[in-house]
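As agreed, record copied across for absentees:
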Amino acid sequence: MSQSSNKTIAKNTLFLFFRTLLIMGISLYASRVVLAELGVEDYGIYNVVGGIVSMLAFLNSAMVQASQRYLSFAQGTNDLENQKKIFSTSVLIHATIAILVVVLLETIGLWYVNTKVVLPAERLNAANIIYQLSILIFLSRILVVPYNASVIAHEKMDIYAYISIVDYMFQLGLVFILQYITYDKLVTYGVMMLAVACVHYIFYVLYTKCKFIECTFHWYKDWKLYKEMFSFASWAFLGGAGFIARNQGVNLVINLFCGPAVNAARGVAYQVSAAVQTLISSFQQSMNPQITKRYASGDRESMMTLVRAGSKYSFLLLLICFTPILVRPEYILKLWLGTVPEYAAEFLVMAVSMALVTSMDGTLNTAMQATGNIKVFQITVSIIMCLDIPLAYFLLSLGIEPYLVTGVSIFTAILCLFAKLIILRRQLYFNISEFILSIVFKNFILSALVIFMFLGLSHFIVDSLLGFIILCFLSVIVNGPIIYILGLKGSERRMVRSMIEQIASRLKNK
């Protein structure tokens, strides 16, 4: 990669890293307060009812992928007119999706909430109100996608970071307000979250309209582009549907067998996992526009170097972050929540394990999307991920502990990783055996070494706040050198040093 590319990635990583650290702290604290204020039952209701709306997030996710891919591709070819067409087409498609979402949620979704979800009779009315508010929140997220995608395609990660921070600061303020509310706190929380979503939408629209010339809607009769983008998004829907099956679909199956209390345990566990995982998502997000632009400009070798680096570094960085959590899951939940729901610690260990597997395929997804040929890719991945629902149902019907169904998700995540490698190899003709040996296999060996070593060390560290701080400290000063020496090749070490120097230079200039 060129020096300028390293500089851009380093700068964007810096902004996204500090954004994510702040957001992670806010979201973890806010979740603790919300759980305490709502109670386990209402928190479980919010998790499962809001999850039904989130099941259609794959519609939104697919168009995020389509919008970012086409806008980044157009920028890679320096075609401003095409950028204008892509933005306006994206707005039009999202309006279509918004209408479709309302129809689905107000018919099938509403029927499911009122007839299938296990809810206390006295909270059914509140659950319906939360459901309607969740629909409105989701609609705002659909309509903001073209503006959000434009910011990311322009690699304005500083603005993306600032808007996200403001968004979460509002949420933090609402959490404090919630403590003084005497009316139904579940309903009040839903109303306040809708207000935050509306502010978020307004911020993005105003900024992009002022800064990017292409971000003004015009009617274009380019039906070929509309069909092309919609076709891309349609195949992306399948991948999104599989992802939702792995997450919210299994959540609903657990609800059928175990009720909302176990949903709450699973929800808090995945909240911790997701909070740390967003650090890696931010790192990958700083690479994604560059991957697409390099493909558009024909620089395939540089693109694949970036893909491999993103896959390896994501896993290794996540391993450093997750080691203390894997060693002390019960304590971190107790420190965060005070009272730990039953099964939450077990769910957390399983969720962390799955996050480590999926961290390796983020840049693989971007590489495949850059080619525009995602039909076989999405069909294969969605079929594998959708296996989670019947397998979870079967295992729970046998009476196994609910947290063990996450083991199914780990297994299908590994299958998906290898399926993606095989399909991507046919598109970009890279060495799949080298990828498996130098990245996948080496990552798993390193993680086993690190985890077993820290499980041994943990016997000599007291189960206290000081002990947990020591574990976090050791995870950095012990894992860092081990990973740097055993996990990276010479060229990768030079790349890491270059990026660290860029970040250090940026901090010094600040």
Observations:
- The longest helix spans residues 3-54.
- The mean pLDDT is 78.
- Residues 88 and 217 are 5 Å apart (CA to CA).
